[in-house]
Each structure stands twice: as C-alpha cells, then as structure tokens.
Design goal:
Length: 473
C-alpha cells in the first residue's frame, strides 16, 4: 500500500485495521518531504521530532483502545500554512520579521486539531503576511507548482496546495483573505474551502486583514475537507467574531440529490478577460450539473468590476494597522526586515486611513463593500449556489507577473468579492489546460451554506476523475 496516497478516511481505515501504525504513516510523509522539498520549497519548517513524538503517542492511544469517535483525526498527519501560532514551533507568516519567532501559545484551530489526534508535520510556505497570489512574495523563496516546476502554485497559501498535490501531507489548513485558499487549490488541482466569515476562529492566526481573514480546510477531495471542517468550526471565546451558530456534521450529508438545484451563472464573470480554456472547463462542469437535474439561472453581480479596488483598499488599510505591532521591540526583527510588498501595502493603507483621505478612500470602499454584499443577496433570491471560475487565467510562470503588481492583483478578480461579502466558497478542480496545468472552479453560497456547498461539490466530484490525477514528481 502506498501510504502517501491515502485520503483521511482511507488512512483511518488502515489505522483501525492495524495495517500500519501512525508512526509508519508519519515516517512515510517525512521521507516524502525530505525527498521533494528541495525542489518544491513548499515547507518553511518541518517538525520531525514533534511529529514522531505525536505519532508514538497516537499509537499508544490506539493500542489502549481510544476511538475515532472521541478523537476523529487520531494518527492523521497534516500541515498548516505558516500563519498559525504553534507553541514553541517556529511561526514566520512567510516573513523574515518573524524568522526566529516561537509563539508562546497555540492558535485555536491548531489546538482543536491536536486535541482531535492529528499530527503536525510542519508549516507551509506562503507569501509574507498573506500578501500575494503566487508565493513569490515569501521571504523564504517561492514555492514551485508540482504540476510544472516553472509555474507558480498560486498564493498566498501556495505551499499548502503544493504539499497536497505532491502528496507531502494528508490535509492542510490554509487561510483566505481574498482568495488565498481557492487560487492555490485551482492552480494545483486540490480542494479548498473559504468558510463564512466567523465560522472558524481566527484566534492565534497571524492577522492580515481582520474583517476579511477566513481560516479553512484544504484537502485531496471534498469529503476530507468536510471532515476537517467538522473539527475546526465553531465559536471560540478568544475570538468575538466567531459565530455562535451550532456546528453541523458536514460529512454526513454528502449524498443529497441535487435535482432542481438552482445554479446561478454571473454574466460579469464570463465576459471578456476569462481565458477560453477555463470557460470551456466550466461549461463542461455545468453540463454535468444539468445531467444531475440542476437548473441553470442567469444572474448578475453588477459591482464585480469594483471588487479589486475595494478589496485592495480595505485589505491594505487593515494590514497597515495589523502590521504596526511588529515594532522590533516586543518580538521579531526590526521593521527594516519587511519586504517590498509589505512596505507598499503599509504605505497604501496608512495613506487611505489618514485624515483627509479616510472619507475619500476607506469609507468609500466600505460603502462599495455593502453594494457588493447586496449584489450577492439579490442573486441568492434567484439561485441557491453560484458557479464561477476561481481565476481568469491558468497558472502562470514564476517571474511572469511579479514586476507588475496590477497584473498580479487582477488574478484575484473573482475571489475577493466573496471575502468582501463574508460568504463561503468551495474551490475544486474541473479540468486541465492543453499545457497540462490545473483549472479550478468555485461554488459560492449564502452565509453558513457550507453543508450544501460541500454536497454540491461532492456530487460533481463523484462524476469526474480530476481528484485522482497526480503530477509526475
Ligand atoms: N492575493 C490576495 C492578496 O494579495 C489575497 C491574499 C489572501 O487571501 N491572503 O491580498
């Protein structure tokens, strides 16, 4: 059995039947990481010693009769974007400011995962502070796309999607402020969920833009993502913006018929600017949904064009405030260690928030944000979910866009709107370009519709083979 190819449920089955131990499973991944990380640069930190200790502990519990009902992820290795505080394990946010930072406490998401028995393999590469769409802004060097090493894996959680595609982990936790879970998922043919704002606690995750940041699961298929969400979702007394809504069992309802489901197609997303291979792949996906009895409805999101400007104003303003805490006095290196992109965003954000300009920029952006939110509310009167591309273009080459920030920002045109509206969106693979690079789509729903999005995604996944395809490495 090839242990590195397993999904969560397959790995659990093997552990239950004692076909292998948690230690064997973990060792296989650590070996795979050693072999591939020099080429891919997808992990910033690998915690081999801690991982093996946790694996031995899991094996002991399994021997003592501990069940997966009590600890749903017992013995399952995983990794996290390097923005989650992990006590005494280096946490950098992809920035040299935090090059040697050891957090004194755990992020709530991480605590929930280790409490459920999961084993942390390491922390994955990302654009510094989440600023970017390619991982080229990481101070630790870019991650390469496992499907073609000349291409970017998307960003900012590029390391997260790369380690999944390359079978260097079983599951991942990413972070999405304006597309950072969904774009890498699309560029690497993996599955990622941007949750409703507040569904998962932000406590202990290094903030990029606090009103937009969403913590979410990434996996090799939809049912794994559902299973992880059931563990990490929920209210948290440490995060006042986390929702008190009860957590649903996201795995139990993945087989609901979608006959009569109304799928909205936003005309603005399919106009000029969308790559024709992506358009074709989404049309083929639509065909599959139609065969399953779904109804296609035309909808309009009239403020789509304002998304990028609105998002980059709000995100820069909030990040300029969040990054003020790195003053080089309490922890971390001096501010001169900030990279170019962070400095640019701090300046832009400070400008937009300064008196005299606040009304003109920040306040205006907030008003447009309300209009964008209203667009979605109106659309959801006509349909239950919205089907859309994740990115207007397929994965691009390393170095291709880094010198032209506007071109880089435009890649986020279809993803940022979802964060501005605070709603959930599931990204999953829907094809490959002629050049052999992945194409992804997103299924967007109203607030707290995660359960239904996962079901719709699962229905599609069952009808296709994309998740079975693997890069040659
Ligand atoms: N690419 C977007 C940005 O640079 C989104 C990043 C994110 O979601 N963390 O802001």
């Amino acid at each position: 059995m090839d242990l590195i190819k397993l999904t969560i449920s397959e790995a659990k089955k093997g552990l239950k039947k004692k076909e292998f131990s948690a230690r064997e499973l973990t060792e296989n991944y650590l070996e795979r990481i050693k072999k591939l990380n020099p080429q891919l640069n997808a992990f910033i930190t690998v915690c081999e010693k801690e991982a093996l200790e946790s694996a031995d502990h899991a094996d002991k519990l399994i021997l003592q009769g501990e069940t997966w009902e009590a600890q749903p992820l017992l013995g399952i290795p995983f990794s996290m974007k390097d923005v989650y505080s992990t006590k005494n394990i280096r946490t950098t946010a992809g920035s040299k400011i935090l090059e040697n930072y050891l957090p004194p406490y755990n992020a709530s998401v991480y605590q929930k995962l280790i409490d459920s028995g999961a084993i942390l393999l390491g922390k994955t590469n990302c654009d510094a502070w989440g600023h970017g769409s390619s991982t080229e802004n990481s101070d630790f060097g870019p991650t390469k796309n496992p499907w073609n090493l000349d291409y970017v894996p998307g960003g900012s959680s590029g390391g997260s999607a790369a380690v999944l595609a390359a079978d260097m982990t079983i599951f991942e936790i990413g972070e999405d402020t304006g597309g950072s879970i969904r774009l890498p998922s699309a560029f690497c043919a993996t599955v990622g969920l941007k949750v409703t704002y507040g569904r998962v606690s932000r406590y202990g995750a290094i903030s990029y833009a606090s009103s937009l940041d969403s913590m979410g699961p990434m996996g090799k298929n939809v049912s794994d993502v559902a299973e992880i969400l059931s563990v990490i979702a929920g209210s948290d007394s440490h995060d006042a913006t986390s929702s008190p809504r009860p957590v649903e069992d996201y795995s139990s309802s993945l087989n609901q018929d979608i006959k009569g489901l109304k799928i909205g197609i936003p005309s603005e997303f399919f106009s000029k600017g969308l790559n024709s291979e992506i358009k074709d792949a989404i049309n083929k996906a639509l065909q599959i949904f139609k065969e399953k009895g779904a109804e296609i409805v035309d909808i309009s999101l009239p403020h789509t064009e304002d998304g990028i400007a609105t998002y980059y104003l709000i995100a820069s303003s909030e990040t300029s405030s969040n990054l003020a805490r790195y003053d080089g006095i309490r922890f971390g290196n001096d501010r001169e260690y900030f990279g170019q992109e962070a400095k640019k965003r701090i300046m832009l954000g400070t400008y937009a928030l300064s008196s005299g300009y606040y009304d003109q920029y920040y306040l205006k952006a907030q008003k447009v944000r309300s209009l964008i939110k209203n667009d979605f509310e109106k659309a959801f009167n006509k349909c239950e979910v919205i089907l859309a591309p994740v990115s207007p273009i397929p994965p691009f080459k390393l170095g291709e866009k880094i010198a032209d920030p506007l071109q880089m920002y435009l890649v986020d045109v279809y993803t940022v709107l979802i964060n501005l509206a605070g709603i959930p969106s599931l990204a999953l693979p829907c094809g490959f370009s002629k050049a052999g690079l992945p194409i992804g789509m997103q299924i967007i729903g109203p607030q707290f519709s995660e359960k239904s999005l996962l079901n719709v995604g699962y229905q599609y996944e069952q009808a296709t083979d994309w998740q079975k395809m693997k890069p040659e490495l």
